[in-house]
TrEMBL record:
Keyword Cytoplasm applies: no
Keywords associated with the record: Monooxygenase, Oxidoreductase
Source taxon at top rank: Bacteria
Protein name as it appears in the record: Monooxygenase
Phylogenetic placement of the source organism: Bacteria, Bacillati, Actinomycetota, Actinomycetes, Micromonosporales
A Gene Ontology molecular function term of the record: flavin adenine dinucleotide binding
């Protein structure tokens, strides 16, 4: 097969909110980026998140640079509204986006990088890797999980409670997704929320204002200091308007500390009691999926990017947008990627004073 080699002055890998924010920032610096998106639309992973998902931030704090989120700014938009918003944002930017174009590897070239997709080979001096911090579902090594005979699925594959009607389900995890999924499942199933530590709650509206108003007003949201809010290895607390805490207090879902083992389809709890369980939902987080940068040598042994504030410390010209806690508490959110993209792109373009002739 003869492959075309085309020159672009910047390539953005990933067409979700992070990729679009990066493309917008590159345009603002006079570049002509090409966005490569593996899926069929520049709307990121949103359409694959569970059906009932609504944003934890109100519309006014969920927008990308230059285009407000439409509708009542104080409401918490549904997943499908985010998909529609991102599609409209891509139109608004007007950058070329190649969908169904998965990057398979990146190599160092004499003045930049060679980018391989399933169909093309491109050359560029600047790459922004924006394939999300949530591409690789994390499955912890729980005692007995490997031999458990019931259904095991990651929250990434959970859509709605319907298939679990009448079952006993354990949801593992202490974060927002775990609590939301467990509470929703508890309307049709017997649900146990299993956590290693007690669940930590945070009010959605302290002193009558949405938390995101406070974060923005104090500057904590985009300050590196705000990373402390993420709770370190314990993870961010669960945002609650009172609904979830009340559900757990009412036992639907019931909360227990993590089971000590699984045998067949039975879970053993810390007090020695045993229960049959039909399904286990792992709401245990995600890791970035940057395998296409492996050959380049930009990742550490665990597959995590080696960077400072989103700028690669291994390869000049390579940057990242959308990594969790990349620079601040808000880095991997709709409201945070714009500021990160602007910073990363400013640093990438500053060292590239000579422009290459973009492809037409
Ligand atoms: P993604 O949306 O994952 O987009 C990455 C894109 O890259 C995808 O379209 C993918 O197809 C593409 N891609 C991947 N690999 C390749 C490749 N090799 N080549 C080309 N393209 C590739 N944030 C909020 O602000 N508010 C919320 O309420 C909120 N709720 C969340 C709920 C859940 C369950 C999760 C998991 C996250 C939530 N987030 C929320 C966090 C974050 O905003 C989302 O995860 C968001 O989808 C991240 O956007 P992204 O563009 O960084 O990554």
């Amino acid at each position: 097969m003869i492959r075309r080699m085309t020159l672009f002055d910047a390539v953005v890998i990933g067409g979700g909110q992070s990729g679009l924010a990066a493309a917008g920032a590159l345009q603002a610096h006079g570049r002509h980026p090409l966005v490569l998106e593996a899926g069929g639309a520049p709307t990121g992973s949103w359409a694959r998140y569970y059906d009932s998902l609504t944003l934890f931030s109100p519309a006014r704090h969920s927008a990308l640079p230059g285009m407000p989120f439409p509708g009542d700014p104080d409401r918490y938009p549904h997943r499908d509204e985010v998909v529609a918003y991102l599609a409209a944002y891509a139109e608004h930017l007007g950058v070329p986006i190649r969908t169904r174009s998965r990057v398979t590897s990146v190599q160092q070239a004499s003045d930049g990088f060679t980018v391989h997709t399933d169909a093309d080979t491109l050359h560029t001096p600047i790459i922004v890797a924006a394939t999300g911090g949530f591409g690789r579902p994390h499955r912890p090594d729980l005692p007995g999980l490997a031999t458990y005979t019931g259904t095991v699925l990651h929250a990434a594959d959970y859509r709605s409670p319907t298939p679990f009607s009448g079952q006993h389900v354990i949801v593992v995890g202490a974060g927002n997704s775990a609590v939301q999924i467990a509470t929703e499942l508890a309307t049709v199933a017997t649900v146990t929320l299993a956590t290693r530590q007690p669940v930590r709650w945070f009010p959605q509206r302290p002193l009558g204002r949405d938390l995101h108003w406070w974060l923005k007003t104090t500057g904590l949201d985009t300050s590196p200091l705000g990373r402390l809010l993420a709770g370190g290895h314990r993870g961010a607390p669960v945002l609650d308007d009172g609904r979830y805490r009340a559900a757990v207090a009412a036992g639907a879902p019931r909360h227990r500390l993590m089971f000590t083992g699984l045998h067949g389809n039975t879970a053993t709890w810390t007090d020695g009691s045993r229960e049959d369980v039909h399904a286990i939902v792992l709401a245990t987080g995600y890791r970035p999926d940057l395998g296409y940068l492996h050959e380049l040598g930009a990742l550490d042994a665990d597959g995590r990017p080696r960077h400072r504030g989103g700028v690669s410390i291994t390869h000049p010209g390579l940057g990242y947008v959308g990594l969790e806690l990349q620079r601040s508490f808000a880095s991997a959110t709709l409201r945070g990627v714009g500021a990160d993209a602007a910073r990363v792109v400013a640093r990438l373009t500053a060292r590239r004073t000579s422009q290459v002739e973009p492809a037409r």
